[in-house]
Amino acid sequence: MNLKKNLCMTLLLALTATTATAQVYLDPQAPIEERIKDAISRMTTHEKIQLLHAQSKFTSAGVPRLGIRQLNMDDGPHGVREELEWNTWSPARWTNDYIVAFPSLTCLASTWNRTLSTAYGDAVSEEFAFRGKDIMLGPGVNIQRTPLNGRAFEYMGEDPFLAGEMVVPYIKAAQANGVACCLKHFVLNDQETDRFAVNVNVSERAMHEIYLAPFKKAVEQAHVYTIMGSYNMWKGVHCCHNDELLNGILKRGWKWDGALISDWGGTTNTMEAANGGLDIEMGTYTDGKLKESEFGYDDYYLAKPFEKLIEEGVIPMSVLDEKASRVLRVIFRTAMNPNKVIGSQCSEAHYDVCRQIGEEGIVLLKNEKNILPLDANKYGRILVVGENATRSLTKGGGSSELKALRDTSPLEALQAAYGDKIVYAQGYYSGRAIYDQVDTIDPAKQASLKAEALEKAKTADLIIFVGGLNKNRRQDCENGDRESYDLSFGQNELIAELTKVQKNTIVVMFGGNPYSMPWLSQVQALAHCWYLGSEAGTALVNVLSGKVNPSGKLPVTFAAKYEDYPYVKFGAEAYPGVNKQVYYKEDIFVGYRHFSTNHVKPLFPFGFGLSYTTFAYGKPSISSNGKEVMINLSVTNTGKVAGKEVVQIYSTAPQSHLPRPDKELKGFAKTRLLQPGESETLNIVIPRDELKYYNESTHTWQLATGAYTFHVGANVNDIRGKANLTIEN
Ligand code: GLC
After folding, report:
1. Strand, helix or coil at 682?
2. C-alpha 263 to ligand 1 mean position (Å)
3. Which range marks the domain in which residue 702 is found?
C-alpha cells in the first residue's frame, strides 16, 4: 500500500512541478508580478547577472535556458537608427532598415498638440516593433537652459510643464504598442560640453521645479518603463548610479517600478552600480558613438565583478533579485508581451503623421505685408538660396541620426510646387556631416558660392533663403555644444547682402536652438522649422503655400542677443563650467521665467507664433473644485482663412518672501481647425498640485494660499485676458 501511495505522491509532485515549471513565468495571461517571482525562483545567480548588462552594442541578455527573451534596444527619439554591427559602432549595412525619420522632439513640442504627440508615439513605436526592437532609446526631456546645447533638438524646450505635457502622450502611445520608452537623460544633461564628467550644482528647488519635473510627470502619468541615466554627475556622483537620485528620488520617492539603463559608457564602478540604482549597464568602456573597447561584456561592472561580490556575500542576493526583477518586468511588458504589436515600417500613415507634426511644428515668426502665404503668380523667378534647401538633415546629430527611406528636401518640394520658376544657388557650404570633426572651410569656395547667389539674386523677383544649423559637429550635434549664438558659414552676411539686391526675401531656418538675427529687420518673413524629418520639404511647402496655416508656437525663448540668457552674466561657472563644475546660478529663472520676470525683451518670446489668420479670445471664466482650477473661454477665428490657435495659461502665485517667476505655464489647449468666424470653447483644467512650489526646508511640495492670477495668452508676453482665484488651503 505504501509503495502505491508513494508512487502516487511522486507522480503528483512531478506533475505539480512540471505544471508549475511550465505554468507561470511563461504564461502570458499570468500577472506580470507572478511571472517575475516565478522566473526569479528558477534562475541561477549567473543568469540573473546576465540580465543586468549588455551582451552586444544594443542588446542585453535574456535567459536562453528558460526561454526568456533578450531585450533589443535601439536609438532614438525620432525614429529607428540603422542597424549597427553586433559588437561595433559600424553600420551593419542591412538593406531593410530604412525607416521614417520623424521630426525632432523640439518640433513636436512646438505643435503644442497632445493628440499629435500620441500619433507620434504610436507611429514611431510601430517602426521600432517592426524592426524587432523592445526598447526605444528616447524620448528626451532635458531642459533647454542654454541655446548652445548640442542636443537641444532632441528635447522639448525650456519649460518643464510643456515638456511633461508633451512627452506623456508619446510614451503612453508607444508603450501601448508593447515598446518601452527609455526617457533620457536622467538628469541634468543640459549641455554636451564635458558631458561625461561635468558635475552639476543646482539648488534643490530648481532641481525639482525645473529639471526633474518632466521626468516625474512621465513616471507618474505615463509609467515609463525604462529611464536612461545621464553621463554627468550630480552631487559628485555619476547619474547612472547615483543612490540619492535613483533609489532616493526615482524609485522610492516616485515609486517607479521600471529599469534604469545607463547611458553608453556611463557606468564607472561596481559598488556604485550595485548600490546606486543601476539595473542595466550598457556600452561600458565606450563613449556612446565611436570608441570601441577590448574589454568583453563579462568585464562590465555589473558582470563578473558584481557576481563576485554576490557570491562572497558582500552584497546581498536581494540587491541582485531587485535588479533582475526590474529587468524581467520590462521583458514581460515588451519582448514577452502577448499584445506587443507587429508594427509597420515606412507606411503612408507614418509619413502622414510625420508631415502633420512638421506642418504644425513650423513656427511663423515674421510675415511682413503678408508676403506669406506665397502667391507664386506674383513672381516670375524665385531664387532659393542655402545649403539646407538640399542637405539631408535626417543624418547627423549623433546617436539620433537616421537612415531615412524618404527624405524630401525643401528644394525638391519647391520645384514640385512651382516648377521652373525656381532657381537655386547654394550660397554657402558647411562641409561634411561628421560627428567628431569640423571641416576646414575654404574661404575661396565660400566666396564663390556667395557671389553666385548674389548674381542670381539680381534677376530674381523673390528670394527664399534656407539655412540654419545642420546637425554637423557643433551645429546641433551630440558630444559638442555650439560655439556661438550666431549662425555659421557666413549666413548672416549673405542674408543681409541678398536683401540689398532683392527686398522680397523670405528666410526659412532649420535648427534645434535659437540664434542671433542681425538681418531680421531686412527680411520680410521668417519661419523656423526645427528638423522636420522625412517629409521636410512637403511640410514646409504646405505651410509656405498656405495649404496649411502655421500654428506652431515657440517652446524656447529667442533672445535678441546671447548675453540676455540668464546664466550668461554669471560667467563660465554657470556655463559651460570651470574645472568640470557647472553652477546653475540662474536657479529656477530659466528661459521666459527670467525674461518675463526681469522684463528682458526677447526677440521672440516663449509661446510665440504667427498665423495666416487672427483669433479673438473671449473673457475667461474661472472656477475651482478644491482639486482643480478650471478656466473656460471661447476662441474665435476672426480672419479670412481656417486656422488653429494655441491658448496658454500662465499663473502668478501670491506675493510671498519666496522668489517666484512672475508667470509660469500651467495649462494650454489647441483648438481644432476653426473656419473663419467659427468659435470653440476651451475648458482648460489645472490640477492644484501644478501650482505648488518646492519647499527646500521641508523638502516637500507646498501650495501657497492667497490670490492667484491666471493669465490667458497667445504667448507669454501677449496676454489676452486674466482671471483671479483665491486659494484658501
Ligand atoms: C549616446 C547617447 C544616448 C544614446 C546612447 C546609445 O552616447 O548619449 O542618448 O541613446 O549613447 O547610442
Report:
1. strand
2. 6
3. 613-727
